[in-house]
Model the fold of this input.
Amino acid sequence: MIRGFLETAINTDLPGMVRAVVREDVYSLDGRRVLIPKGSRLTGEYKSGIARGQTRVFIVWNRMIRSDGVSVNIGSPGADSLGRGGMAGRVDRHWLERFGSAIVLSIVGGAAEYLSALADASGGRRQETITRVDPVTGEVTTITIDPERTEEEARQIAIERSASTMTELAKEAFEDSRNIPPTIYVDQGTSVIVFVRRDLDFSELYADPVQQELARLKRGGKPRVAIDPVPLYMTPKDNWFPAAPPVTK
Done:
């Protein structure tokens, strides 16, 4: 694994590139050479389109660039300290953007419907009786009218149409904003880990140590003496003993 920290921030509203700095030397398998020095740059990319409920952003690290100009394609994913894929960050689920306009329009529509019901239930209208006499025939006609009815009916129709319009707008606003995906923010300086998925070839930079040792022997060099490994068994006397005693039956 390659450990580092972010040099650029991450916002998953749009896909983009990301860069990190290696914070510790990475050695070869035998521990003799530093393959990736501290301070090397890592470049990668991340995608947008975070699914609902997702809390981690997936990063693919493409290149490693050393301070001496050496560049190696790594093509490996990012992980956390436990090796889990993705990088955790701060999640914004956009509650206000998704439901704010629909809630406001629903409240306005409900108020309009309340006023409509209130006007419909209002009683005690004052009625007037008008008597007309036909000058030709002398016929008397009596008409009972409500002078407030026309105004109240017009007000009620206006309120009902407003309520219906607000309800339709609330539905459209909810349909337009309900699918807004969450946004994950990862700040600069956040620790990153690259889980290297394949062997990195540095053979063009460093010679094979086996071939080097063979060439040294051909030139007349003496074989190196192998050092015995340190025993790993402890005793109360000197805290070490070479091997466990054999078991006899």
Summary: The longest helix spans residues 149-177. The longest strand covers residues 71-79. The radius of gyration is 41 Å.
